[in-house]
Amino acid sequence: MRTGIATVCLSGTLKEKMQACAIAGFDGIEIFEQDLVTSPLAPEDIRRMAADLGLTLDLYQPFRDFDSVSEDLFAANLRRAEAKFKLMARLGMDTILVCSNVATASIDSDSLRVEQLGRLAGLAGEHGVRVAYEALAWGKYVSDYEHAHRLVEAVDHPNLGTCLDSFHILSRDWDTAPIEAINPGKIFFVQVADAPKLSMDVLSWSRHYRVFPGEGQFELAKFMGHVVRAGYTGPVSLEVFNDVFRQSDVERTAVDAMRSLIWLEEQSAKWLDGTSTEGTAGSAAGSRRRYPMELATLPKVSEPAGFNFAEVKAEDTVQLEKLLGQLGFEFNGRHRTKDVQLWTMGQARVIINEQAASHSEPAIAALGFDVDSPLIASARAQQLKAPVVVRKVQADEEVFQGISAPDSTEIFLCQGSPDGTAAWTAEFGQPDESGGGLQHSSLRDVATPHAVIDHVNLAQPWQHFDEAVLFYTSAMALEPQPFAEVPSPGGLVRSQVMQTSDGAVRLVLNLAPVQQARSEVRKTYQEHIAFAVDDLVATARSARDRGLEFLQIPANYYEDLDARFDLEPGFLATLKELNLLYDRDANGEFLHFYTATVGSVFFEMVERRGNYDGYGAPNAPVRHAVQYDSVHRF
Amino acid sequence: MRTGIATVCLSGTLKEKMQACAIAGFDGIEIFEQDLVTSPLAPEDIRRMAADLGLTLDLYQPFRDFDSVSEDLFAANLRRAEAKFKLMARLGMDTILVCSNVATASIDSDSLRVEQLGRLAGLAGEHGVRVAYEALAWGKYVSDYEHAHRLVEAVDHPNLGTCLDSFHILSRDWDTAPIEAINPGKIFFVQVADAPKLSMDVLSWSRHYRVFPGEGQFELAKFMGHVVRAGYTGPVSLEVFNDVFRQSDVERTAVDAMRSLIWLEEQSAKWLDGTSTEGTAGSAAGSRRRYPMELATLPKVSEPAGFNFAEVKAEDTVQLEKLLGQLGFEFNGRHRTKDVQLWTMGQARVIINEQAASHSEPAIAALGFDVDSPLIASARAQQLKAPVVVRKVQADEEVFQGISAPDSTEIFLCQGSPDGTAAWTAEFGQPDESGGGLQHSSLRDVATPHAVIDHVNLAQPWQHFDEAVLFYTSAMALEPQPFAEVPSPGGLVRSQVMQTSDGAVRLVLNLAPVQQARSEVRKTYQEHIAFAVDDLVATARSARDRGLEFLQIPANYYEDLDARFDLEPGFLATLKELNLLYDRDANGEFLHFYTATVGSVFFEMVERRGNYDGYGAPNAPVRHAVQYDSVHRF
User: Fold this and answer.
1) Domain made up of B2-288: CATH architecture
2) What CATH number has the domain spanning B306-633?
3) pTM value?
4) Does B622 touch chain A (CB under 8 A)?
């Protein structure tokens, strides 16, 4: 699949955009007219720069408001088109996007449109230009791709074809199946964009909220499958108008964009395999290869089986050690060669990394996921342009495959085991008094309560939220769930759960409100690791006896809880006594408590009863308010 | 008019919100349940604190999903209500908001609703509580205030009344006239919110985009007029869910909110006067006084007649002096007691203030507006809670009435003159060689070209954009125009013009994209003063001859201009030679050029031909791109 991207997707100058596209590995770009008009570079310079960067210039766009106009305006439009055709010759470009008329269309006549598009095609032919005609979703008379293509067919000129744009088609819920029937020689260009399903006017939706494939909710694999079946072989090019991408770092956004196309390519192949009508499942991949467009595949991975560990980093780790100890975690010794400690409770493993920069406060640094094959998972992530993380290891130690998530959390791909243990823990222990070996504290352990990492909650910088969703979807096989918005004293926090189908891995990405001068980073960027236990009340009592500082839940909360749930008085008293929070839904119950915060990290202990699958969402505002208050009090 | 505000409008903890409301001067507040539930304060503490702050606790809200439910759920709902009634007794509150059911309604029967609301009213009566029933715009069965009120009338219980919320009524375009027919004793509460007219689902619109009255596009004065005519005398309370206000400084937002009610009060009185059906215009105000609700009035001002001056401040003013001199401005001497210079071209007056803090770069510091009566305008602004600016003056100097705009620009209210001159300029001049007096340079002037300040463009911090719109509307009598969005390499810039009806004063408020780490404040916060002249080409030629550094416009721009407008080749060559930009519409033509930037300030010279009323919007992206490029190059 030839990959492309419109310069309007990115921030910066045309030069910066082109360089970023080359670095990200795109085959070609679409030149958005405004980027050219505002550039100090001459068309010839742009042509040369593209050649040097290994980028083809695939599409000049947009040419607006051409068809369905009076004869006067039509003459001016032809003149305007010719100026652009001449400019394209200097750029060495041969395809221009002409959108259906939005602003100046005054005559609703297909025969007039055929005549006007025909004359445009004729002029284009004289200049060696191909016109790709596109139906905008809000076109005045032409808003449907099939209508646009009927016009193209009626004109029947070699220099006029169709441009298919997934946004304009899927935003209007047009059926995509008829794409397969289009003569591939008449599909001059294909643009793709995803979008969240918003119910707002389609123009605003299009101009502000498009996202890269995999970051929204459109059925893009299906759209692309039809395009591939039609026999199209040209560029598949991103055209994404997004307020955030337009102001984010250009190189990073370009990589995010490229990742989305690599992912889309794989998903399209899957869709084709899944909907192949011929033969058995085994031959499906074979039948796909009959299509002219070649779809590259990625190393396949299943969703992770669980968290292998979580790592917290700090210069001064005393507070972290104290908290974990009070929660009931057991110190399993130090690593034999590194300045890290291992703390465990059942199968919940926390590494405390002491190798932090000076003055750095405790923070979540890394997560380990159990996967079938760390090498294959790492290969997949790297093909999806995830940056590799390298950590020093000794020859006889387990090598972790690590990649860096968009928020800089290090993600390690670990070899899962059927019983949930981790071989690398053998590298930790107390120095044996006889010298040489390590004495494993786990051997001394009699009755460790059952515990696992239930979920991890990471604060996301607002510029990289969509990127993070695509990263975890494509590289880590997690599924985004419908998002929630949680009120906090500092603003609404957008909360996006990414999880495996069985809930064994649950990540909560929190998009914090933009920082205020008054606020401190600590306030909005608190993150946490939650552990699930079998008996939360017992865990809380033990923790209290060990002196744990609980997050203090207001008495008003328990009154409201009682009003909502009509709880048994003894149970309510227990919740209140231990600062436990409670939720209930049709599937089950949820009990949980939070610790005080150390640096930007706190811990949560949870108990899931029945099939409760949430996170106590009604309680999140309480947590935010109390944390805000405790930061603002000091 | 009794003023109120719901705590959900503001950021921070309940305590911070209450304090801010008291400082801003509200009469009372609505307690939003979540603020109470998440607060460490006991209900009795909140009651006491409110009393100490002089705030009444007017409404407890929201109580959701009560009506139209099965008998089982109804019993639970009554129980839930009783818990809240008891809580309200501890708070000393007597009114609760009950919203029409959104989530759990399953039986669409008005007779069932009358029965269930009746039983609720009975229970409320036992607790001395008044239930204000409100139709949510997206209520499952009840979404129309008239429907809600029919239910209230059918129940006919002294403890059940109606809550009217402008958002739920105006977002659905319900007719507001029938409000007048409602028995005022049955209107238990009135909530007001404004909103921009967005075409999106009403729930998202309501939860994120409400603004304070005067910051949106709803006809609130009319809504309030009907409420007043109905005979309502209770609180008029703001209920504004807004993503930005929720994260802005709480005290400042509370003042913005209070300003909106003061303004609404005046606008409502005006609407009543304007629609009074009895007697002459002279007796209109008299007839308004017949209504039970008292509406306070503000000192009346007309829109300003023009800019009196603009002031730029810097530690090192050499570059500014050079630019103004090259543009053709004349140095009119120094102030006799202050470190400020006066530069003029025709009636365009620029003050260069040298009293800047050390290391401060040149920036726009103040604007003077010509008004009929500076004292009355200042009194009005102060009643609208605008902070007063005090500047030292000598006994025999003109005293400027100054107020501070939301972006900290100082706004001075100056005595306008019929011929556009300003008396205070006599305080400037060259020291007379004979000692004592000042020699006025204007006396030496032979042929000053006609020039005025055409518009001023101010960058707005994103947290205070809506506040700025209301400030200039209410205190300065400027009218907001439909806003535009301008693409720039750093993101979309939202551009909001505020102007007088004759265009004599034009302010452009630019909402810059949020800052990136890479970007520099200079980049997005460039601001400018534009001067209108009669012959831009001549002005540009002279400026060029004086060595002015023009903003360099790319050659590509002129090619595109030619494609769009088919310009006369000689004219196009002149534009290109002088770095002039051009626009044309049905009303006329616009020529303009920009200078290089000094600090965060640059200047623009414009010529308006015919009745062109815009700002060269199609050229703004070019300006942004070139400025971005010049900042990033260094």
Assistant:
1) Alpha-Beta Barrel (3.20)
2) 3.10.180.10
3) 0.91
4) yes
